[in-house]
Design a protein that fits this description.
Length: about 100
């Protein structure tokens, strides 16, 4: 069994901003559907307070909860786009391959 940290990790201001923007996008998606917070909460199997935290971009909310809310809103396919493009990793991999062929 993996020990869970007693408190969430430090989230830097730029990361907090990204989470807040993400939460706002989820809030707007809910509002466009004209759904109450209680509706999303019930369908996602979480409390209304948790949905408020998701919409605020709270870093202490689990990724699974974000995924459930996205699924309720019909946005689960967008989850597949997270970290799909790894430009830095691919550049490092390509540099390693180039270095190997120079030998």
């Amino acid at each position: 069994m993996v020990d869970m940290p007693s408190k969430p990790p430090i989230v830097f201001p730029s990361e907090k901003k990204l989470l807040a923007e993400f939460g706002e996008r989820l809030r707007l998606a809910r509002l466009r559907r004209k759904w109450a917070v209680a509706t999303v909460a019930g369908r996602a199997g979480v409390s209304r307070t948790t949905v408020y935290h998701v919409e605020a971009g709270d870093a202490s909310v689990t990724m699974g909860t974000y995924m459930r809310v996205m699924a309720v809103l019909g946005l689960q396919a967008s989850f597949a786009l997270l970290a799909a493009e790894d430009k830095v990793g691919r550049a490092l991999q390509d540099a390693e391959l180039d270095a190997g062929s120079a030998s």
